[in-house]
Design brief:
266 residues; two-stranded antiparallel sheet; 8-stranded mixed β-sheet; alpha/beta; globular
Length: 266
């Protein structure tokens, strides 16, 4: 595991490279695209375990933080969806400089999956495969979800006489957001997504939604292979730290993600 900084001086990003156990014949590289805020905190351990297991199986893996997030430069409010989309393209280029891989897979969770789709449409080099775990397909619905989660985590009726607004303003459960970020999220719509890859897009969720089904149909109509896989277990409580005692990295989920990355059957 090798941590490093990359990107231009005014836009330094933090990355972690997991080298394959054996570099000989390692032809697959995987970029892990993180979600947002509390969801990124929840996914940190799973991403690390996923990266370690893939590396042991001979895969190049890179984790990274978006600008204004985690260990990367910038403040919370500096982050925008456009910046983060372009950060994925930048991270892909950095990973490619470190390997001799002939195939790239981008795996994203929640907003990370949505950003991966957005980045694939503008990247000079498209990934071989996109693995999309519960991508966000409607920005206004996500803002409503975040606003309700923020209220649930911060409102105490014994201290506050009035319940605050559920609208997202400048903070979501301890993570700052800018007016630009909010306006970009308000404009996010499944009809504007155009995921692009050389082989296939794999959608993972506990159940397919009307929006994900519509996106899959849209991709299939364009001749882009799309596959839905059912995630094991109950729905994940994304916005609470303890997740009601749910395992953060259940083995069956790791197996599904690894098989999806490799294009195999779980």
């Amino acid at each position: 595991m090798t941590p490093f900084l990359f990107g231009p001086p005014a836009h330094r990003l933090y990355g972690v490279y997991h080298a394959p156990a054996s570099a000989q014949g390692a032809r697959l590289q995987v970029l892990l695209c993180p979600p947002f805020g509390q969801e990124a905190v929840r996914m940190h351990r799973l991403y690390r375990l996923l990266a370690e297991q893939l590396a042991r199986q001979g895969v190049h893996v890179m984790r990274f933080d978006y600008f204004g997030c985690g260990e990367s430069a910038g403040q919370d409010e500096d982050g925008t969806l456009t910046h983060w989309r372009d950060d994925i393209v930048l991270a892909h280029a950095e990973l490619s400089l470190r390997t001799r891989a002939t195939q790239s897979v981008w795996l994203g969770v929640r907003l990370g999956a949505t950003l991966a789709m957005m980045a694939s449409a503008v990247s000079p080099t498209v990934p071989h495969r996109l693995v999309l775990w519960e991508p966000l397909l409607d920005g206004p619905s996500y803002l409503k979800e975040l606003g309700e989660a923020h209220l649930a985590q911060t409102y105490d009726p014994y201290i506050q006489s009035r319940s605050p607004s559920r609208d997202v303003r400048d903070e979501i459960i301890g993570f700052g957001v800018s007016p630009t970020w909010i306006s970009e999220m308000q404009a996010l719509s499944v009809k504007d997504l155009n995921p692009t890859c050389a082989a296939e897009c794999i959608h993972i969720a506990t159940k397919a939604s009307a929006l994900s089904t519509a996106l899959g149909d849209q991709q299939l109509a364009k001749g882009q292979p799309w596959r839905h896989l059912t995630a094991p277990g109950p729905d994940i409580a994304w916005h609470v730290e303890e997740a009601n005692g749910a395992a953060l990295a259940p083995p069956e989920l790791l197996r599904l993600l690894i098989a999806s990355v490799k294009g195999e059957s779980a």
